[in-house]
Amino acid sequence: MRTKSVGGGKRRCPSLSVSSPLSIITQENDDEDPSPQLRKSVIWNRWIIFSQDNGKKASDFKGKSTFNTNPSRNKPCVFCIGHEDECTPEIFRVPYDETNWKIRVVENPNAVLSRDLPVFIDVPEFVGVLDGFGIHDVVIESPVHSDQLLDLSPKEIGEIFVAFTSRIQELVHLESIKYIQVFKNHGEKAGGSMSHSHSQILALPIIPPSVSARLGNMKDYFYQTGKCCICEIQSEDLLIDSSTYFFSLVPFAASFPFEIWIIPRNHSAHFHELDAEMGVDYM
Fold first, then answer.
1. Residue 203 · residue 171 · CB < 8 Å
2. Active-site annotation, residues
3. Which of 8, 192, 195, 196 has the fewest other C-beta atoms within 10 Å?
4. Sites in the chain below the pLDDT cut of 50
5. What residues contact residue 224 under an 8 Å CB cut-off, 6+ apart?
6. Are 33 and 50 in contact, with CB atoms under 8 Å apart?
7. How many whole angstroms separate alpha carbon 163 and alpha carbon 106?
8. pLDDT of residue 166
9. Locations of Basic residues compositional bias (predicted)?
10. pLDDT in the model for residue 128
11. The predicted structure's pLDDT at residue 25
12. In CATH, what number does 75-206 get?
């Protein structure tokens, strides 16, 4: 075990032509040690993030509407262009080092995990509590407060996806990081605290058991049949849409209403293998 701060500082981003397997519990910050923790439930075989109470975290939502009903009245926030000095440390921006940026990746101002806690390289199999080490970043998707993801062009959204992959490619080289999740909470009811359009990246020192189980089941299917169960999906029966590199479908045994899978046509194991051309096609 060692202690260090990771994930900060500017990085050069290459030029550019969403249910989480973890639960997050916030609690009142009455203890002497406010550091977050990762706790494992023996009964449910899952990890829970226990974080200090974020109930008083900054929020610029004015009402309960998911969308900005009157964008002209929106006030600038720390995610807006021109307010960079009020925001948390920047990791990189697109275009790189340009004042008129299009995308910024910054440290999450309301991080549920800490990049300054002890780093665990190998987590003991039967450990029940870990210091809440991890990387929690925000991807600011537009410099304009009133822009939502649906307002952006396919090319602009593709650039956001490439920014995801650029950050993931940095994080995968950290020996302590075992799993990386990209997610987006859209609207106050979904858990978003800022109405300025953004996504989040969470990098963990453990692999959530639900993810391990899914991978294990896919490996078992391959050993029994010699085939990939994702590649074998009969998309014609459940197909929603298709493009050059991807197709979307309703899973046969969906876990919740409106669940959609977006699957690459070519066998691919990692999200960060997506490039600029595929990012545009993804949309």
1. yes
2. 198
3. 8
4. 1-5, 10-19, 63-64, 66, 68-73
5. none
6. no
7. 12
8. 94
9. 1-13
10. 72
11. 56
12. 3.30.428.10
